[in-house]
Amino acid sequence: MPPAPIDELKKVIALSDLPGEHLQWILDHSVYVEYEDGGVVMRTGEVPDFMMFIIEGLVSFYMDKGGTLVHFFDFGNDTATGGVTGLLPYSRMKTSPGTSFAVGKLRGFRMHKDHFPELERLNPAFIQRLICYMTERARSFATTQLQHEKVSALGKLAAGIAHELNNPAAAINRISSELNKRLKENYGLTENLLRQPVSAESLQRIRQMVEQKEKEYAGKKKLSPLQRIQKEDEMNDWLETNGLGDNHAAGETFVEAGFSGEDLEAIRNDAGKEAFTDVLPWIENLLSSRRVIKDLDEASSRISHLVGAIKSHVHMDQTNDLQPTDIHNDIENTLTLLGYKLREKNITVKKVFCENLPATPAYVGELNQVWTNIIDNAIYALPKDGELTIETTCDSKNVKVRIIDNGTGIPTEIISRIFDPFFTTKKQGEGTGIGLDLVSRVIKHHNGDIKVNSRPGQTEFSICIPVLKKA
Questions:
Q1: Which listed CATH number (1.20.1250.20, 2.60.120.10, 3.40.50.1010, 2.60.40.2550) goes with 5-122?
Q2: Which end of the chain is least crowded, N or C, by CB within 10 Å?
């Protein structure tokens, strides 16, 4: 026990103006404690049963996030916490959600919760003060939790985007190597071609045929795998029958470009049988090079599309003011960014969008978090080969968005709690309970409304957002 305990208690900001007899009562019903630097004050899962008044040192609290301790808050003898920590009167905390450590030499007094009712009778105003500290503590925890949730969500989204970007980037790398090989081969093939009596007019007709095939191919439905195999077999048979070797790669190239045996026969008749043996590989290399360039264009377009989706989704280069947005485009961007998760589970996405969607005034960065959270939750709830449906309806007053999944559904006994702060149905470490609380607050910020209905096989989130900005 310190030599002058009353004087020590007066150092605690929350107690500094209490009458001497009240301080004496607190002293009589408390226990003096000391902890060395790094000492454990309370562990995750322990039942808190005391309030602590800090005289010296800090209590550093680490939230348990799926077995990992994450720093959340420091309690000290300051105006923010009043030098009070632990279980406060009227707190609903049943077990500690994390572990607390002493920072520096920690000294203070601990009061058991059994004395709280008598303390309230002695000084009701002091209890109200403690409740205010508890409210501020809860607000600080919620703010920190929200920041961690956003960082975690951003990390997961960044990892997914990196995965999405890696595929076309790797494709570009492979394509550049293949294109370089084809260009080198072109020198030798062109030399062989020039040794043949092939006229410029004949080459021009070949070019026109290639261009015509491209136009026809663009307007045709893709061949089924079975049809493709059948046509490749026919092409390979034609090549072998005409003494052009067993070249399956060439057969695949010609079929993909829309050529048939009859087309090659027409080229042979035009160029001449002798020249055809050098014309054919030159054409095959030309078609392969054009295909590679097309693949390169698709891969680079994919990257551009992803970058555009990212920029739009996070609302880069724009203010945080209320401004018109295209909700359909925002949802499409969200689906693009979550595409890797959809493909992992082979989820089918059905979109039924209303026509003539009006521009909707929104805090776009906030509203995109709504689509991200709800769609991501739906993906989590869906089984492999599940189905996600997104429907929109609109009129001159409102835009309504329905996001429906055919997962197992939300149990009736908890559906009323899903928008509560920190409530989550996900496994420990996979959810913090911030997502839907954030969704609810964002929708309210837009003067909108959100409802949820669920049964086994169908969960529906319905969001209504006014089109007209309120004065």
A1: 2.60.120.10
A2: C
Measured CA to CA, the distance from residue 471 to residue 467 in angstroms comes to 12
CB 145 within 8 A of CB 431: no
In DSSP terms, which residues pair with 61 in a beta bridge?
73, 100
Q: Residue 66: which region, alpha, beta or left (left: phi > 0; alpha: psi -120 to 50)?
A: left
Q: How far is CA 10 from each of CA 56, 59, 95, rounded to the nearest angstrom?
A: 12, 19, 30
Q: How far is CA 275 from CA 196, 281, 282, in A?
A: 5, 11, 11
Which residues does residue 187 pair with via DSSP β-bridges, in sequence order?
A: none
Phi, psi of 135 (to 5 degrees): -65, -45
Give the C-alpha separation, 444 to 18, whole Å: 42
CA distances from 54 to 3, 73, 91 (A): 16, 15, 19
Compute φ and ψ for 156, nearest 5 degrees. -65, -40
- The residue whose two tokens read 């899903």 is 418
Question: What are the residue ranges spanned by the domains of the chain?
Answer: 5-122, 161-308, 319-466
Classified as helix, coil or strand, 107 is: strand
Phi then psi dihedrals of residue 382, to 5 deg = -80, 145
How long, in residues, is the chain? 471
pLDDT one-digit tens code per residue, 375-404 = 988 998 899 999 999 999 988 889 999 999
Using DSSP's 3-state secondary structure scheme, residue 401 falls into strand
410-428 confidence digits (pLDDT tens): 888 887 777 776 556 555 4
Rg (CA), the chain: 35
Burial class (CB in 10 A: 0-12, 13-18, 19+), 371: buried
DSSP state, residue 108: E
Mean pLDDT of the chain: 85
Which amino acid, one-letter code, is at 376?
Answer: D
Range from 61-75, 132-146, 160-174, 338-352 that averages highest in pLDDT? 338-352
Asked if residue 122 lies in contact with residue 79, where contact means CB atoms within 8 angstroms, the answer is no
Asked whether 390 and 331 are in contact (CB, 8 A), the reply is yes
Three-state secondary-structure class, residue 429: coil
Most distant CA pair in the chain, distance: 117
Classify domain 319-466 at the CATH topology level: Heat Shock Protein 90 (3.30.565)
